[in-house]
Amino acid sequence: MTEWWTSLEPAMKVLWAVTLSASLVFVIQTVMTFLGAAGDSDFDINSDFDTDAPGDISDGSVDAGGHDAAGHDTGHAGGGMNLLTFRNLVNFLLGFGWTAILLQGTVPSVSLRLLIATLVGVALVALVMLLFKWLTGMQESGNINVYKSAVDCQGTVYLTIPGERAGEGKVQITINNAVREYAALTDGPTLKTGTRIRVVEVISATTLLVEELNSIII
After folding, report:
1. Which of 22, 77, 116, 125 can bridge 66 by disulfide, Cβ–Cβ 3.0-4.6 Å?
2. CA distances from 114 to 15, 29, 52, 84, 90 (A)
3. Which residue, 162, 148, 152, is CA-closest to 213?
4. Tens digits of per-residue pLDDT, 107-139?
5. What pLDDT, on the 0 to 100 scale, is given for residue 109?
6. The pTM of the whole model exceeds 0.90
7. Cβ-based neighbour number of residue 207 at 10 Å
């Protein structure tokens, strides 16, 4: 191993070092992805930290799908959709490095090897970006926009809601054919566990204003 390393030209030593480092980082990122920490190591080269984790939309920050607290599209998408990210740099070096190494003995022209390696690196970056875009689209399609869908939905009180907005309780409502749990307030009297309710207003992404279903005057 030592003899092989010392026999390499300086340029090949650098190429091997960069390629192996990129491969190690790629493996770590892949493991983190399957552990649910995908994107935590992504950051823009201009030092702006870029994370895939959803923001706290209750205070108006942007989530991973590029929406603010009101569900408006902010034009930002997480998960590697920015071109200048650490992940994309690693992917490019991975494709470029291994291609250049594998072609060393078969393509004598250094310029041609570099061109092919560059194209493979760019193609790998594009492929990964398209994959993240597809995954982000699937995530967004599976999310429920409470601001658009919750009003007039019906459900039951899960934890007693104090009257006159004196405190929060919990409700379970059926929204888009799925049962979801939210914090809830009410302007009326105390609503006990099991009371049927209707959503009157969405106060925040996690809190609803509700009223007793039987109190609705038709």
Report:
1. 77
2. 11, 26, 33, 21, 17
3. 152
4. 888 889 899 999 999 999 999 888 877 766 655
5. 85
6. no
7. 15
45-54 contacts at long range (C-beta below 8 A, 24 or more positions apart): 45/84, 45/85, 45/86, 45/89, 46/84, 50/78, 50/82, 50/85, 51/78, 52/78, 52/79, 52/80, 53/78
- Which range, of 20-29, 72-81, 135-144, 205-214, averages the lowest pLDDT? 72-81
Lowest-pLDDT choice from 2-11, 74-83, 180-189, 200-209: 74-83
Q: What is the per-residue pLDDT for 85?
A: 80
Domains of the chain: 2-142 (no CATH), 146-215 (2.40.50.140)
Q: How far apart are the first and last CA of the chain?
A: 84
Between CA 87 and CA 37 the distance in angstroms is: 13
Q: What is the dihedral of CA 37, 41, 42, 47, to 10 degrees?
A: 150
Facing residues of 201 across strands? 209
Torsional class of 152: left (φ above 0), alpha (ψ -120 to 50), beta (otherwise) = left
Q: What are phi and psi of 163, to 5 degrees?
A: -75, 165
Evaluate whether 93 touches 18 at the Cβ level (below 8 Å): yes
